[in-house]
């Protein structure tokens, strides 16, 4: 009984017995085929924030690997709310080498880079037992050979962003939620923020703001999935 709670034996998207994510559902997760700007959602090369959009963005570049739709959406839901941790590295590993190469290529331009997972508030992390962003950060770190460091702290346990109806309420909801941990230095560094999903981008923008104020040179965002709101 206890084992079933921790290791669900039904596929989350189709309910078939066996794995948390069956082969058929895993194969129907759609990769992002066109990178876009985090501000205007229009196409952009390698997810660069357009020059004009940089006026309202603390993030210089945003990349995701899967679309937040269908099986991909259900899968992101499960890694966030259940202990289906192991499937993160499994899904990352099915992506074509061309995608992995792109992540590597973008990060090789940056020296003095650091991978930083978006933190959860300690109460929420304790209740959940894990922070999925830390696990994803570990996977991206393996791909890019860039070290991971948890330099940010979430000081406000904000209500869930997904429950906020508009971009403006999301922005307000997350305001002041992060601080730089004492003793951490990000001056002149390139920070690669990691999260499971970005939709409005408000959470990542708030974290990026703190990093830029502290002197970070460039802030990139890498997520597993990207969905518009
Ligand atoms: Zn399935
Ligand atoms: Zn733009």
TrEMBL record:
It comes from the Bacteria. Residues 129-225 form the Phosphoribosyltransferase domain. Residues 2-54 form the Double zinc ribbon domain. Belongs to the ComF/GntX family. This is Uncharacterized protein. It comes from Candidatus Roizmanbacteria bacterium CG11_big_fil_rev_8_21_14_0_20_36_8.
């Amino acid at each position: 009984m206890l084992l079933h709670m921790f290791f669900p034996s039904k596929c989350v998207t189709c309910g078939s017995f066996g794995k948390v994510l069956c082969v058929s559902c895993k194969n129907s997760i759609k990769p992002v085929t066109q990178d876009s700007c985090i501000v205007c959602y229009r196409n952009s090369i390698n997810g660069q924030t357009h020059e004009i959009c940089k006026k309202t963005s603390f993030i210089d570049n945003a990349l995701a690997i899967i679309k937040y739709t269908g099986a991909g959406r259900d899968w992101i839901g499960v890694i966030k709310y259940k202990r289906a941790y192991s499937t993160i590295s499994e899904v990352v590993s099915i992506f074509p080498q061309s995608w992995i190469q792109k992540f590597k290529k973008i990060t090789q331009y940056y020296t003095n880079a650091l991978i930083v997972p978006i933190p959860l508030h300690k109460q929420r992390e304790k209740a959940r037992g894990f922070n999925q962003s830390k696990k994803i950060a570990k996977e991206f770190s393996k791909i890019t050979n860039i070290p991971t460091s948890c330099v940010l702290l979430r000081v406000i346990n904000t209500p869930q962003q997904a429950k906020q109806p508009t971009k403006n309420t999301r922005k307000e909801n997350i305001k002041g939620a992060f601080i730089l941990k004492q003793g951490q230095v990000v001056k002149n560094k390139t920070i690669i923020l990691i999260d499971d999903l970005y939709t409005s981008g408000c959470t990542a923008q708030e974290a990026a703001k703190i990093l830029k104020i502290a002197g970070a040179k460039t802030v990139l965002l890498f997520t597993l999935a990207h969905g518009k709101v």
